[in-house]
Amino acid sequence: MINKVRFSAAWVLALSLVSFALAGTASADQLPHHHGQVIVEEVSATPASTGNRSILRLRLTNDGYNHTHLLGVETPVAAEAWIIARTGDTETTILESITVPPEEALDMTSDHMWIELGSLKRTVELGETIPVELIFLRSRLSVEAHVHGISS
């Protein structure tokens, strides 16, 4: 019985160490960013050259009891940024802001809604991470976007 307990404890310890090691190798877009009751996940951007546009994608979850309002983003790599929503087959519109109700998620990882980083100040390279600051009604949250995907 003692040998079985030691063996089980050894396996739990080994699995914990492997999990910890794997967690340390996760890319920036896989790590959730917590800000109060807001959780930001899957933050990524597409590679693009100076002067062009990069597509920023993310998933924002409001775990709180109040609405949260995303007003926009800022990043040192772009002069402009817009929240974009698809309104038809080929039509899009720029949103001034977007509200996420309590206990809801906003999925900006699809082709229905995204953030465009425009007038890039430098080339955004495949494999790098870029700093992005999400601007909420009453606060800001700094996150890292992992650059991957198809160039925009």
Concise synopsis of the structure shown:
This protein is α+β, with helices and mostly antiparallel strands. Helices cover 15% and strands 47% of the residues. Strands 1, 2, 3, 4, 5, 6, 7, 8, 9, 10 and 11 form an 11-stranded mixed β-sheet that branches.
Explain what the structure shows.
Mean pLDDT is about 80; it is low at about 1-5 and about 10-30. Helices cover about 15% and strands about 45% of the residues. It has one helix at about 1-25, and strands spanning about 35, 40-45, 55-60, 70-75, 80-85, 90-95, 100, 105, 115-120, 130-135, 140-145. The protein has a single domain (about 30-145), classed as Immunoglobulin-like. Strand 2 (about 40-45) and strand 3 form a beta hairpin. The chain has about 150 residues and is α+β, with helices and mostly antiparallel strands. Strands 1, 2, 3, 4, 5, 6, 7, 8, 9, 10 and 11 form an 11-stranded mixed sheet that branches.
- SS field, number of helical segments: 1
Number of strands: 11
Task: Name the CATH homologous superfamily.
Answer: PCu(A)C copper chaperone
Q: Mean pLDDT score, rounded? A: 82
Order of helices and strands: HEEEEEEEEEEE
Percent range for β-strand residues: over 45%
Compute the separation of the termini in Å.
Answer: 61 Å
CATH domain fold name = Immunoglobulin-like
Rg, Cα atoms, Å: 19 Å
Give the overall form: globular
Helix content: 10-25%
Q: Give the structural class.
A: alpha+beta
According to CATH, what is the class?
Mainly Beta
Sequence stretches where pLDDT stays below 50 over 5 or more residues: 1-7, 9-32
Shape-level CATH architecture? Sandwich
